[in-house]
Structures are given as structure tokens and as C-alpha cells.
Design a protein that fits this description.
Length: 602
Amino acid sequence: MKLTQISCLPSPYPLVKPRRSEAEMFCQVTVVRIPRTLAAVLLTCYLPEDPNYLMANERMNLMNMAKLSIKGLIESALNLGRTLDSDYAPLQQFFVVMEHCLKHGLRAKKTFLGQNKSFWGPLELVEKLVPEAAEITASVKDLPGLKTPVGRGRAWLRLALMQKKLSEYMKALINKKELLSEFYEPNALMMEEEGAIIAGLLVGLNVIDANFCMKGEDLDSQVGVIDFSMYLKDGNSSKGSEGDGQITAILDQKNYVEELNRHLNATVNNLQAKVDTLEKSNTKLTEELAVANNRIITLQEEMERVKEESAYILESNRKGPKQDRTADGQALSEARKHLKEETQLRLDVERELELQISMRQEMELAMKMLEKDVCEKQEALVSLRQQLDDLRALKHELAFKLQSSDLGVKQKSELNSRLEEKTNQMAATIKQLEQRLRQAEQGRQSAELDNRLFKQDFGDKINSLQLEVEELTRQRNQLEVELKQERERRLLNNRSLPGKSSHELDPNSDERHKIQEENVKLKKPLEESPRLQSHPTDEQGQLLLCGKPQMCQLCQDGSPNVTGEHGCRGSLPRGLAVQSTAHPQHLAGRAQERQPQPPVLL
């Protein structure tokens, strides 16, 4: 969430609505999810004619911003769990909001350089209302780096927050309206009930521990601009890990010990300077004491001399006139008075010397205690530095592990990318295979369709061929029976002609062998017919598709007695195998013609 632009309000207050002369200007706010309080602040852009209404709206805006700032500061400080310093962003924004609240409705003081608005004047009144605030005011005035009233006011707010009495001071200031009327307009925030509400909200800041180092901080030139982006974030911030918490706690302890060490060093330096001063004063007093002793000795000598002179004068007075006695008595009284003064001075010097000696002893004792305390703090600082070094080593180790884990994650990501590339390639291959499978399925379906069409077209021819094969089988069986009968008859004829010469029987045996060979030739097509029936779509289809007529075996022999009698007409029927033979009846007739006639018995 980001606030893109708020293009209004040339006033020093970023939440003030435009004046009547600026009617052409308007607020451009991006629609974002923001808290309801901040929405009430940002989206109230009107053009009222009543200036009191304008001031009331400004007070409401500043009060809402103060609520958001205080709430965010308390929540973030409790989540952080340590002492806040001047670099903490929510704390800086809180001081900016408080500065705007104190500047609202502030009367301008006219000077020779122009008008000047400063909230340092009202804050100076607090020391009159609450005596405890006098220390803050004196500390602010003693700071060397502050040159402007604005810087002093900012320093006063920080010191009051460190004392955890900012709410008390603001309540005491708001209750004195007659004093504030000198600095604020009647409808200013500090003069209305919104100021009392803000003072009540400041009570919650007493749970926060803050530590500011005013020396070296430039409070005069800081720009007080409210950063709205801090209040557009989610309030539920995630807590850090346990290791970060330990590191933060140790760093806080280290900062505290270092700060305490700086204070102790400063105290030691101050005490050392005081000791040096006391030593110098002691030396001076010793010298003065020596001078006083010398003077006392001199005075004693003078007193002895005066006593001698007085005794001599008394003697002479006894002998001399009375006027001389009176003059000598006056000189003696003056000498006694001078001696008394010198004696009192000596006593005072001795008393001062004893006091300085006792103070020196006390300072030496304090120095010893401070040295002991400094040694203890240095030991604690050394132990904390050792812990810090250990934590740094642990941090480096964790950083190395993190780097190695990042490298492993990078390698795994590269492996994942390669696997994704292989997956994409496999997906492309699968798509190609699926496409080929679809093509093969289409080819199979087309082949099945062609097969069905082939069966539909040539089914009748196959049936007729099967009938012809059955007829040929029947004729073959009949022919075998006839051949058997013929063999028996020939056997009987051979027996009836025993006197026949062997050379007459040899032709008959040759004829018999030929008939057997022809019988074998007739069996071959009958044996191949079951194969034709089992594969009608392949072999018979090829036989049926071949349109060229073929010659039968009898026609190829060129026998003049058989040609034209077995009925093939020089070619086989279309669809029959080449090995088919002539009709069995014709073959039987041919065998009878070739059979030799038996001899006629006279």
C-alpha cells in the first residue's frame, strides 16, 4: 500500500484543508486499504467558508494522527522489547506529530527579521507550573549545539519523554488556559478539548524506555514532515527469530554498557579534574601555609623584639616623663592587636588545610571505588565483546550455510529446469506417438473396412469355390474306387495270362506308374484346398484378383486325345489354382484308352 500523492495544503500543516483562494486545488488520494482513523484524516478535504470550522477540522486531523502515532509507537516498542534511541523511525514520527500539535494555532511574534512561530515559549512555562521541569529547562538551555527556539523545544520534548513525565507536563500546561492564551489563538488545539485528549493519550508512553544523546544531534535543522507510509502498513508485524532476539538483546546490553562506560569515563575525568584542582589548591594552600608559618615565625621574632622593646620602654617610662608612657602604651596595644589578627589567620589557614586534606582523602577513596567499578565494567564489556564475537562467528557460519543452501537451491532449480525441458520433449514425443497411433488406428479401421468389403464382395465366390472343392473331393474318391477296381481287374488279367512275355508286361507297369503319378498330382490340390478355406482373404483373394487365365496340366502335355475332351478350353476357371487337374471322368477315360487291350483267347 502506497500513498501516491497529496497535492494540497500550502500551509505548514500537511493535514490542513485548502483555503477559499485555493479552490482550484484538490486532494488526489489513491484508493488503498488504510486504517479508519487515517482515512478520516486524509479524506476530509472540504472548502468551508467558516475559519472556525477549518480550525476544528485541523484539530481533528491532528488528534487522529496523534492517536495513530502513539498507538504505533507503543505497539512497535513492545514488540521490539528494548530501549529506543533517536534513530527509531516511529519515535521520530511521534515527535514530528507532537511538534505539529504544539504549532497549531500558535501566535506569530513579530521581529525585525519577520514573523516567527516557536513553541518553545509555552514549554518554558512548564517549569513555573511543575518544579520538576526546571531541571529539563536548565539542561536544554545548557546544551551548546542548540541555537534556535525550535531546536530547544525539540530537545525539551525528548528529555520529558526520557523522564516519562511528558503527559504530566502537558496536562499541567493545558489546564492553564490563561497562560496559553498569550501564545495560542482561541481555537488552537492546545486551547480546546483535543489537547486534553492528546495529553491523556500520552500516559501510555510511560511504558516506553527511551535514551537520547543530545550532544552532536542537529535538532535545529530537522524537517518536520509526517510520513504517512508508516501508518499504511499492517500493524501485525512478524516477530524475529530467537537468534535475532538474542543478538538484539546482547547488542542492547553492549550499547548500555558502552554508554555506562562513557558516563563513568566522563565522571572519572571530571573527578580527576577536580582532584587536579584540589591538588593545585592544596599545593597553593601548602605554600600559603609555609608563608604563614614563616610569617608567624617572623611575627614571633617581632613579638619577642617588641616585648624586649616594651620592657625597655617600660623601664624607660619609669624613668621618663608621663607623656612618653602614653605613646608607648598605644604602640604596644597596636602591636598586640596585629599579633591577634595574625594568630587568627594562622588558625583559619590550618583549619582550611585540614578540610582540604579530608576532602583529598575522600576523593582518593572515591577514585578507588570508581576504578574498581570501571574494572568490573571493563570485564563485563570484555565478556560481552566475546559473546558478540561468538555471535558474529555464528552469523558467518549461518551465512555460509545460507550460501550453500542457496547454491543447492540454484542447482536444484537448474535440474528442475532440465527436467522440465525433458518433460516438454517427452510430451512432444508422446504427442507424436499419439498422432502416429491415431494414424495407425485409422489405417487399421480402414483395413478392417476393406476386409469387410472384400468379404462382402467375394463371399459368394469363396462359397462357390468351396462347393467345387467338395465336388472334386467326391470325384477323387470315386476315381480312387475305379482305380482300385481297375487294379484288381488287371491283376486278374495278369494271372490269366501267365505265358505272356515279360516285355509285354513292362509297358503295363509303366502305365501303372504314370497313373500313380497322376493320382499323386490329383491329391495335391485336394490337400491344398483346406488351406484355401482357412485363408480365404489372403491366398484365395490373390487367386481371385489375378485376372490372367492359366493352362491346366493336361493342356500343357499337349495330348491330342484329351484336349477338348476334359472341358478346360485351354485355361482354368478364374479363381482356381494352377495345380487343379481335369475332370476325373475325363481322366478315367484317358486311363482306359492307355490301358492295353487283353489278348483275345481263341
